[in-house]
């Protein structure tokens, strides 16, 4: 009490003296001047002396020009963007204060005597300045050894009792730490960092002790003294404790706490033990082991998510679209695993910022380059080699990551159980480069370039090639403590070619290309603990060259043909609100409005009403000028999901969403292939639509040791693009006469049990799903299977995946991957007929039968190098056997007429065990 009374007397005396002094005016100017020098210059012009601790001023520079201003006005401007306050004691002394202020009086209610005040006095006091911020010192405080950080500058006119602390968490390499838990000690308050390591948390004024917890990151505790809104960046070290291996792991309780349904986060570093074909670490192949995601068969390109087609997946690499994510007949993905940081897969409720696809979004993020030191990772395998290098450009500010992967794969083709493939050649490579630069605390830019190319020859007279190319630029900007935004520019191109040089005079060179350019602006607004808004707009220009063919040699009889270019503009505006209704109920409400315009120049064919489209029913061809609007489509897309806590570790989630898709693939193959072309919606082709509802229950057991979830969904689709029997899809100027549009439906239940800790970890996934298509019309030639629903090409009712890893020691482990699936639908012959003395096949209804069920077991033994910290590189050996049981899983079954009879054939990709040794090292 004595100390408080003395302080009050001192404050009162300072107030009295200060009120008697006339503050002088001065004129000074500074240009990037050290603050200490600036204060010395003011002292020379006045009788004042400054009192401060010199270490406070180190590295602080000021600029400004001030003419005939009072000294207190000059100091207000000089200290505006610093943490300094000042107090003028008299005509001779000015005291600098860091963060806090000197108060001349205390509110009347400071000593808790509200009962002595009248109602009007209490109301006045509530509007008056808050009491000074006191930080008590207790010799017995167990937290007295903590690092103390003062944030913000105290302001007497600020009546807020809570302030917002924002910042970024990075590791020792300067790389962002996602999903780091930041918790206020002793309070039920916390947050987590996003994928870029950024966070925001509202804290009470004064002393706060923040704890950080994260997988593979050393925990920390920091005492924050908060005077106002401010920024604090965490720089944390990786944990030196060797943790049990976790294959796929989100942050703690994320599966239970988030509102979105059907979301999976894959960290590439955690999937290295999954035994995959030919020892290649592969983020997309790892995704297939999870419920709800599958492929049409072994080696198939493209992915089917919850009964959707392969073209209904939006695959993004640093915000740029990849149209064909496969290498080597679908055996490898085209995403370099060593340059990839995270992959977030949305298969249920898709965030409002994403659009243009119906089934899923694979949002893949390349890791940032190391801004601290040169680093890298590489692997050598039997089919591919891979290397990624990271180097600082400006230490602690910018870095460059470059990576490349190539193959020497001809030997593996010769070992396959397929005569055509065994006589084939194939090669591929992909390159990636990323530059990340932190300009200041408020601005960061990232640029990515990617290119991949495949070339293969299945027969001696044909060479196929295809490539992906993308560039993207992202500028992240922090407007203030509550508003951050991103400006994204991207361009993607996919093209393929066929070069045929046979013995006859029909040599040709065929090419196809599509290109898209997008600009997107998205803003995050942290309104409060209850409301967090995301909003923005985007616009994407599609340019599709449907194909061209030209004679390869002068002797060729092939005529030159070039199909007219197609253009379309897809734009959208979106808004979402993450609304915390209560501690138990969290609602994620999103609305996206998309608008699409098909653009000229184009010649659109008009057909007779109430008649099937064919050359016989063509009535006219309407010409449209360059960039003239041909047709428009669009509508609202609702993205609604909610989470309710039944218990703190047990939640129920539900979602409802719809989407439009304005671009379609043209294919009569079972799966996506390099020669699939894309078709934009226009006068004759309507956009696809989908509506999906889902409901799920999520439970964590023994903390986060076990995760258990079960989720069901139902999906309806409209205007799915399919083909007529015998359709010619490539280089067809009237493609609308060869395709059909119909309805689809899909439903299923997904079950996942995951063990995250212990010597044995991994997961068990089971999916029961059905996918159907209905092609009905008033015209018989456009009806398939009598207009009834029939199974889609990728309908697989039962799908079981088991991924397990057992650690014998810190260096030795064994892994297993088991897959069992229902065989996909096929169309079988049910009879035959004779024509011109040859027997031909009469086929059943489309997809009435199934090929045999698929199952496969893979095993691997993994050896890590010693765990010495000071060594050039850390190594990792993987000895794996793909298809241990030697199961001859059929990829397809087909029938041909040969020598006057019908013969059945079955093709398989890997019908024998395939051993692999892969060496990985990281430095």
UniProtKB/TrEMBL annotation:
Transmembrane recorded as keyword: yes
Gene Ontology biological-process entries: siderophore transmembrane transport
Keyword Membrane carried by entry: yes
Chief location bin: membrane
Membrane topology of this protein: Multi-pass membrane protein
UniProt-listed Gene3D superfamilies: Carboxypeptidase-like, regulatory domain, TonB-dependent receptor, beta-barrel domain, TonB-dependent receptor, plug domain
Keywords on record: Cell outer membrane, Membrane, Receptor, Signal, Transmembrane, Transmembrane beta strand, Transport
Residues spanning the signal sequence: 1-19
Coiled coil: none
InterPro entries per the UniProt record, alphabetical: Beta-barrel_TonB_sf, CarboxyPept-like_regulatory, Plug_dom, Plug_dom_sf, TonB-dep_rcpt-like
Location(s), subcellular: Cell outer membrane
GO cellular component: a single term: cell outer membrane
Chain ranges of the TonB-dependent receptor plug domain: 279-356
Molecular function terms, GO-annotated: siderophore uptake transmembrane transporter activity
Assigned protein family: Belongs to the TonB-dependent receptor family.
Protein's name in the database: TonB-dependent receptor
Organism: Flagellimonas eckloniae
């Amino acid at each position: 009490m004595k100390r408080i009374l003395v302080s009050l007397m001192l404050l009162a005396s300072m107030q009295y003296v200060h009120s008697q002094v006339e503050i002088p005016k001065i004129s000074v100017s500074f240009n990037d001047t050290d603050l200490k020098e600036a204060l010395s210059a003011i002292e020379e012009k006045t009788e004042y002396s400054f009192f401060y601790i010199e270490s406070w001023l180190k590295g602080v520079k000021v600029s400004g020009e001030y003419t005939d201003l009072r000294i207190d006005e000059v100091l207000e401007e000089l200290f505006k963007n610093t943490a300094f306050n000042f107090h003028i004691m008299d005509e001779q002394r000015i005291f600098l204060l860091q963060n806090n202020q000197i108060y001349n009086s205390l509110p009347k209610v400071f000593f808790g005597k509200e009962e002595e005040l009248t109602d009007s006095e209490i109301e006045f006091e509530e509007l008056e300045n808050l009491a000074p911020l006191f930080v008590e010192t207790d010799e017995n405080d167990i937290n007295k050894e903590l690092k103390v950080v003062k944030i913000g500058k105290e302001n007497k006119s600020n009546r807020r009792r809570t302030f917002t602390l924002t910042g970024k968490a990075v590791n020792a390499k300067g790389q962002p730490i996602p999903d780091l838990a930041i918790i206020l000690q002793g309070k039920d308050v916390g947050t987590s960092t996003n994928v870029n390591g950024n966070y925001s948390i509202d804290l009470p004024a004064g002393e706060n002790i923040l704890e950080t917890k994260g997988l593979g990151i050393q925990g920390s505790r920091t005492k924050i003294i908060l005077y106002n809104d401010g920024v604090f960046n965490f720089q944390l070290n990786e944990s030196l404790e060797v943790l049990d291996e976790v294959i796929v792991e989100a942050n703690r309780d994320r599966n239970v706490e988030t509102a979105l349904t059907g979301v999976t986060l894959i960290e590439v570093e955690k999937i290295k033990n999954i035994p995959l074909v030919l020892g290649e670490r592969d983020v997309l192949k790892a995704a297939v082991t999870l419920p709800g995601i599958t492929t049409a068969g072994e080696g198939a390109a493209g992915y089917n998510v919850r009964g959707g087609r392969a073209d209904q997946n939006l695959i993004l690499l640093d915000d740029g679209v990849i149209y064909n994510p496969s290498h080597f007949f679908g055996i490898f993905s085209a995403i370099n695993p060593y340059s990839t940081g995270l992959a977030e897969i949305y298969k249920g409720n898709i965030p409002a910022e994403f659009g243009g696809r119906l089934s899923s979004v694979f949002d893949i993020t390349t890791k940032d380059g190391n801004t601290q030191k040169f680093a890298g990772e590489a692997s050598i395998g039997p089919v591919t080699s891979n290397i990624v290098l990271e180097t600082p450009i400006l230490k602690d500010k910018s870095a460059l990551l470059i990576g490349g992967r190539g193959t020497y794969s001809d030997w593996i083709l010769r070992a396959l159980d397929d005569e055509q493939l065994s006589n084939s050649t194939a090669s591929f490579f992909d390159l990636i480069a990323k530059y990340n630069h932190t300009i200041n605390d408020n601005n960061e830019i990232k640029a990515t370039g990617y290119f991949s190319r495949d070339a293969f020859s299945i027969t001696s007279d044909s060479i196929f090639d295809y490539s992906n190319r993308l560039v993207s630029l992202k500028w992240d900007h922090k407007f203030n403590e509550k508003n951050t935004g991103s400006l994204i520019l991207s361009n993607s191109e996919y093209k393929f070619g066929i070069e045929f040089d046979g013995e006859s005079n029909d040599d040709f060179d065929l090419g196809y290309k599509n290109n898209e350019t997008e600009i997107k602006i998205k803003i995050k607004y942290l309104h409060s603990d209850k409301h967090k808004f995301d909003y923005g707009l985007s616009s994407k220009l599609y340019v599709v060259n449907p194909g061209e063919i030209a004679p390869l040699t002068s002797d060729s009889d092939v005529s030159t043909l070039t199909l007219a270019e197609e253009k379309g503009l897809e734009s959208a505006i979106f808004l979402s609100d993450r609304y915390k209704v209560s501690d138990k109920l969290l609602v994620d409400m999103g609305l996206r409005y998309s608008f699409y315009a098909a653009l000229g120049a184009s010649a659109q064919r008009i057909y007779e009403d109430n008649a099937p489209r064919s050359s016989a029913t063509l009535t006219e061809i309407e010409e449209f000028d360059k960039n003239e609007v041909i047709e428009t489509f669009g509508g609202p897309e609702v993205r609604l999901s909610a989470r309710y806590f039944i218990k703190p570790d047990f939640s129920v989630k539900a979602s409802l969403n719809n989407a439009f898709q304005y671009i379609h693939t043209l294919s009569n193959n079972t799966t996506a292939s390099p020669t699939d072309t894309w078709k934009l919606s226009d006068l004759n082709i309507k956009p696809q639509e989908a509506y999906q509802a889902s409901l799920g229950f999520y439970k964590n057991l023994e903390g986060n040791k076990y995760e258990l979830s079960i989720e069901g969904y139902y999906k309806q689709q409209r205007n799915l693009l399919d083909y007529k029997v015998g359709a010619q899809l490539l280089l067809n100027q009237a493609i609308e006469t060869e395709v059909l549009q119909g309805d689809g439906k899909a439903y299923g239940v997904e079950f996942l049990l995951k063990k995250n800790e212990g010597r044995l970890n991994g997961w068990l996934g089971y999916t029961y799903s059905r996918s159907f298509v209905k092609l009905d019309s008033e015209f018989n030639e456009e009806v398939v299977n009598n207009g009834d629903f029939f199974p889609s090409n990728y309908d697989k009712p039962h799908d079981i995946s088991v991924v397990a890893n057992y650690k014998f020691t810190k260096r030795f482990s064994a892994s297993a991957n088991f897959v069992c699936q229902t065989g996909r639908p096929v169309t079988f012959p049910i009879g035959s007929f004779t024509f011109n003395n040859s027997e031909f096949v009469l086929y059943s209804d489309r997809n009435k039968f199934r090929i045999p069920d698929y199952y496969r077991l893979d095993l691997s033994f993994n050896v890590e190098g010693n765990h010495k910290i000071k060594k050039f590189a850390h190594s990792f050996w993987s000895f794996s056997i793909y298809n241990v049981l030697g199961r001859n899983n059929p990829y397809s079954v087909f029938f041909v007429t040969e020598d006057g009879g019908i013969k059945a054939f079955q093709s398989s990709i890997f019908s024998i065990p395939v051993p692999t040794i892969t060496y990985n090292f990281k430095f």
